[in-house]
Structure formats: C-alpha cells, structure tokens
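Limitations
The structure tokens in this dataset are predictions for the assembled complex, not deposited experimental models. Users should treat interface geometry with appropriate caution, especially where small molecules or nucleic acid strands are included. An illustrative entry is reproduced here so readers can see what is and is not provided.
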Amino acid sequence: MRKKLLPKTLFIIAVLLVFVYGIFLGTDPDKAIAAWKQQGPLGAIQQNIHLGLDLKGGTHLILQVAVNEAVNSETDRVVQSLREDLSKAGVTFTDITKPDPQNHPEIIAVNGVPPDKVGALRNTVSDTLQRYDLSSGAGNSYQIVMKPSELTTLKQRAVQQAIDTIRNRVDQLGVSEPVIQEHGLGDYQILVELPGVDDPARVREIMQSTAMLDIRLVIGGPYPDEQSALQNNNGAIPPDAVILPGNTGRSDQAEYYVVSRTAAVAGSDIRDAQPSRDENGRPDVNFHLSNDGGRRFSDFTAAHLHERLAIVLDNRVREAATINDQIRDNVQIMGTFTEQQTQDLAMMLRSGALPASIHYLDEETVGPSLGADSIRQGVLAAIVGMTAVLVFMLIYYRGAGVNADLALLLNLIILLGFLGFSHATLTLPGIAGVILTIGMGVDSNVLIFERIREELRAGKAPAAGVEQGFAHAWLTIVDTHVTTIVSAVILFLFGTGPVRGFAVTLTFGLLANLFTAVFVSRVIFDAILNRKERGEALSI
Amino acid sequence: MELFRNTNIDFLGKKWYFLGFSLIFSIAGVLSIAFWHHIPLGVDFKGGTLVDVKFANNPDLGKVRHAVDDAGYHDAEIQRLGAAAQNELIVRLPQRETSEQSLDRGRSEIIAAMEKYFGGQSGKLDLNNTGPSQIAKYLLEKDPLHLGTDATTRYNEIARQITDFRDKSRSGVLSSVNELNGAVPPQVVSALQDSAFTSQFAVRSVQIVGPQVGAQLRKQAALATLYSLAGMLVYLAFRFEWIYGVAAVVAVFHDTLITVGAFSLTNKEITLTVIAAILTLIGYSMNDTIVIFDRIRENIKLYRRESLSEIVNRSINQTLSRTVLTSGLTFLTVLSLYLFGGDVLHGFSFALVVGILIGTYSSIAVAAPMLVAYQDWRLAKTGTAAVPGVAGRRTKIRA
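Predicted assembly:
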C-alpha cells in the first residue's frame, strides 16, 4: 500500500518557501535586500521582524487626558450664550451655575426662574441647545444636562484630538515608527511609544508643547499676587473670569492675570502659525484661523478693540497682547519678542493645542544596552532550549526523532516568517513565547509517538500503527492547544506591549504546530513507510 | 529508548501522601501571603519608581546608599541585580503621594545623585550617559579627522559606532575612553581622551508607575486570571462532564496558589510578565489533565467491571510516560529560559519552572483522585454509584 505523497510534499515545500521569504524579505523586499547587502542576513531579518521597545530601547508612556476640561470648556461656552439667549427671550433668572464642574461638568443649573417664564425657558433650550436635556429640580431651578451620547462623543473627540496633536509633534521631531494610540485598558488614556528615544529630557521636550492652548480676553493684570488681583477687581472676580498665573518670561516676579473663563478661540481653531517680522522689522508671530474660528474671532475682536488678549498655555498666561484691529482670520501677535521666542511660540501654536490637558500616568525607559543584552540572552536561551529538545527527541525516538525535529524546525520557520509578514512586534516575552512554542509544540509529537508505540506494542503493523496513532492523538492535541490558546487570547485582551507580544507568538506558534506536528509529521512517516518493505520495523 | 513501560503504581493508594504534600505547600504559601512577605508586587502593580543602574566596577553599596540618602530618599530600596560580577543595582522608590505632574521627580533626583557621586569632571562629555546625536554634535565641533564642512555623515556614523560598541559589546558602560581603541579611528579616541570621560555608571532602564495605572493593572490581572479559570471550566465541562471541569479547575487553582505562594516565600516580585506566565500555566496545566481524563473515559467503557479507582489508576499508569515526557520537554525549554534568559525574564521563567512541576504533579495527584473522591461521596450520600464519564457526549476512543 503506497501512498501518493507528491502533492502533499510540494505543498509543504511551498509553505516552507513562503515563510522563509517572510523571514528574509518580509513585506518590503527592496529594503530587506538593501539591509542584507549592508549588514548580511541578520540585517535583513531585523528589517522585517519589528523589535519591541524592550529590545530596541526607547520610551513608553501612558497619558491621561483630562476629558472633563474639554466638557467644561464646552459647557462654559453654553453658560455664556444661554445668558444672552435667555435675556433675549425675556426669561429672568437669579443665576446660571455649574453645580459640580469637577465631577459633572456636563450639568448646568438655571436658578430662580419665575413659573410663568418656564415655557419660554423650555423653548429657548429646545431651540438653541439640541444636544442638551432640560429637567426641573428643586424650587425654581432647572437643570440642563448634556445628552449622554453627546458627552461620550465629546470626550472621545478630546482624546482623538490629543492623539492627533501628539502625533503631529512627534512627527516633526523625526522619531521613527512611533506608536500613539488610545490605551484600551483605561478611560481616556493614550499610549505613546517612542523607539530609540531614551533620554527623559527629550521626551519632556516632545510632550511639553502639546499642552492645552487657547486665547482669552484679559480683564486685568499683571498683578504681583492673587490677593492684589482680587483687590483690583473690587474683592471678587466676576463669575465669567478666572485668575491665572502668568509665565511670560519677561520678569522674574510672579505675575497673575484676570482673564475670561471662556476662550475667544481654542487652540484647535489655529492653522499654520509662522514666525515673521512686523513693518519695523521686529520679530512677531503670524497665524491663521479656521473658518468657524475666524468668524467668532472677528466678532470678538470687534467687540473688544484695544483690550488685551492672553495666550493661555496649560492654564498659564504665556503672552498678553493688545487688539489693534478687528481681526478675521489672519492674526499677528506683536510684542517684545526675541527671535527664539517667536519661533517657540509659532511651534506651540502650530503643533495645535490639546482640548484638554494631559498627565503622565506611567513612564518606562529602556536603554539600548539593556535591550541588546536582552536579545542576546533571549536568543541564547532559545538556542539552548531548542538544542536540548532536538537532542532528546533524537535519543528517545531515534528515527522518529528526526521526523519530530524536522517538524519543529518548520514550526519555528513558520513562526518567524509570520512575524516577518505581519509586522507583529517581537518583545522579550515574545522571545520567551517562541521558546515555549518549541517546548509545547514538541508535546504534540510525543502524544502521537507514544500512541503509535502503544499500538505497535498491541501488535499492529507499522502502517496501521501510524494510522491509529495519528487518529487517536488528534483530538487530544486539539484539546491541549485550545486550552493554551484560550489563556493566551485572554492575555492578549488584558495585557499591554511586551505581554501582548508573548500572547501573539505563543498563539501563532501553537497554531502553526497543528500543521507541522500533525500534517507534516504524518507525511514524513508515510514517506518512510513507502520505502520500507512490508513488515519491516519502524524506528520509533 | 523508553522510560516508563507497563508501570503499575498505585497512585490512589498514596492519596493521603499527596494530600499532605499539597496541603504543606499550599498552607506554607498562604501563610506567607497572609503573614510574612504577603504578595510581593512589582513596581508595575504597586506604583513607584525603579531605576536600573550599571556600574563600571563593583559598586560600593554604602556609597550608593549615601548618594540616595543625599537625594532625600531614605526609604529607597537598593538591591543587587543578578550575579555580583554584573555590577548592576536596582534602586526602588516607593509610591509617593505626589501629583502626577511630578511623577518623574524621583528618577531625575536619583540620577543627579549618581552623577554627583559616581560621575565626575563636569563640563566634559560623559560617554556613558550620552546618546549618539550629542556625541556626533560634539565630534563635529572638534573635527578630529579634519573633514571640514561635510563631515556630518561621517561623524554621525562614528558616534553610532561608539554607542553601538558601548551598548552591544560593553553592556552600556565603558570603563575608560581607551576601550574605544579599535572600534573607532585613533584620532577620534585621542580627541575624546582630552575632553570626554567615562563616568562609573550608566542608567539602563527606568520604570515609573503612577498609582492610577498600578490599581488599574492589579484589577486587570485579577480579572484575567479569573476569566482564564472560568474559560477552562466551561471548556472542560463542555468536552467532558461538569465534574471533570471542576476537578481540573481545582487542580489548576491549586497550581496557581502554590506558584504565587512560591513567589511569596522566596520574596520574588510578581510583575505583569509573571501574570502572563501564570495565565499560560493555567492553560498548559490543563493539558496533562485532559490526557488523563480522556484515558479514564476510554477505560470506563473498556473495563466495565473495574471500580473507578482501579480505572483511574490504570489510566494514570498508561499515560504516565506521555505526561512525564511532554511536561519534561517543556520544562527543559523553560529551564533554559530560567538559566540563560537574563534578569528581565527571571520572574517569568521562575513562575513557569515552578508551575510546570506543580502542574504535572497535580494532574496525577489532585485532579484524578478528585473524581474518585466525588464518586465515593455520591455513593455515601445517595447509595448509587454514578460513574462519571459514561454519559459523555462523545464516545470516540482517544489517546
């Protein structure tokens, strides 16, 4: 009974070639060939298999976006416009407040509305604030609450905008292959990975300018401290104003400004800021506004001619300048700037501003020397572990051991080729996953071989023994793979960076093992059986 | 070659020894978790700052302590990493009640203190704590090769060679500028000798974790472990009967407890990668158990006259060789990881080394005897000897 094995053998050779291609040439063969010419085959492999931060060195950050700030600035604007709209509609009220801006910035309270004006209040709210719900509270107060879906969208948008802004900034600095994405594990967090950047000062420099920026009206200042700021405004600042520290860098003295609570334009309205010079040749900064922002700014500057504007960065007044003209969308900031200051300011404006500020939650820096050591040790452990397994299989199963070893090598080639094709990142735990794949993958061969031995002991002929051995071991192998892969998938869902790399290599390694240990190994057995005389013993 | 042929060991007869063995290790672990080292959490779960510093020579621990005290961190822990010859230390700062804004203050102050005590010659270029771009800039200024204007590419290349040599051949720390001889042109070395130096240390890695992320990660890790256990229970209940699922999950829980207990007893830190190892173990420990359970189910049909304990014994003996071989081979690779994989993976491979040993043991000594114990209990309670497994949905005979 001879089996036709040619199609199967050709299929296996094709798979082998495809994955060897993946290892050395990957998805971008031209680059890989160039790397091969320069640094040899190892260079080509490194070109295709992406190394994680823990192997390459670099910085990993988790940032929290203070999304409530974005909600606050939105509801602040609503409070402002509601005052005007209600007055226009003839609705009287004692005040409009936000009862809990810290935790519930989406709630606005209108207090002291006379009963006969409630209808007008309802109409105004339903006309002008479609994205809000109106409900009545205790006494004559009413709550206007942002719709939950709107709230979520607004927060998501703040995170997305922060991500875009950070990406712009990082791109300008020429960091290669950065990762900037939403961090799935937390609420409104961003994951930033900067390969090759292991200098904390440089990271600060990259992140710092992605601060929250907007332009507001100056009501008074600068004052030397908060007390005098209060005194100069009759002891209490108006409800629509706040005191902010100044940081204009022009004097060593502390400065405090009283500025409007709402922004005239938000940082996200700013387009294309450039350092330039005014007609007298002094350095200044020019920038454009978006259409919408320009319209608002035009009204605003017309109403506040000859007053001052403050550029507020991260809740600090960085610059205060006088409005000389009604401005539409081309803005010129003049002051006593140095060249360097205008460049920095333009960069700050250009890199956009965050709709909400960000905080560091987690920071990890791996130097290149640790990464290099990790690669060396990981590869050494893999080679030693693999050699031990290969040698053991040869001694224990003799002829069949060769079969298992071939299957194992193919398993490894498929796994590495997959890494080359998929651009999945190889981390140090990922290397451990490769090593574990070797150890766990060979288990399938052991299960099959032990069953074959059992069948042969029971007196079956070699061909029947092999047949039965594979048939019986198959379901058990699937079972064992399922349990391990279930664990790995849960790990992938819950884990971060390096641990995910482990889950990926282990899962794919075990999937490839189903092919190599069962299909390939079977073909090798059949090939051996084909060449044997009937009844000749099998080396196992 | 064969290791186990026709073994006939009365495993169930030794169940009291097994119970005793399991209890000793579980209780020792639980006691250590409750009263001694608790669960030693890594910086990623606990929050805080961890600075890994490598020195050119064997560092004087007293001097390091002094430097760290000087920076105001009296509660910092200083610990050697790996072998003494590695000259590497870990400085750990506990989580401070500081705002997120100054999260990295500890790092910069520790590094500043190290510079003060182990640095030297301010104003000169420190080759051990400088990146390639700064070195290139410096070389361009000095121009030791007299290349003139278009030297940028060449000096970038040389700077890269210097840092590569330092990081890949010298583990990040050069002990003197002279070491660069042979790696870069001699003119460059002599220029560097004049105006650069090598401080006695280099910072290899820093990890700073804020309280929020630590708490988040603890919750995720606990959830992931629970989901894994639940996943196994569901899968085994589906493949066999629920009592098999329960027995297997109890065995795996026993493995997890003893592994975590081993970390507590030896005061090793549980980090995120250790959790990854534990989740892997949960999946992997199932394998031996499944092989034995499969055989039990097969034998229940073949030997209808035998008692369940005889069948279980027979099944364990029949599968003993593959149980030991599969675990043994995986253990070989894990052992190699533990011995050669380096310090970063130390906890990970330790968990696997302990877990695979315990997992194999528990498949034989915990999971299978539980089936018999359950049947005895049913027998005593209802008087009917329900043999689990006969009603299994699939009746195919398997390995």
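Some entries come with short summary sentences. For this one: The mean pLDDT of chain A is 84.
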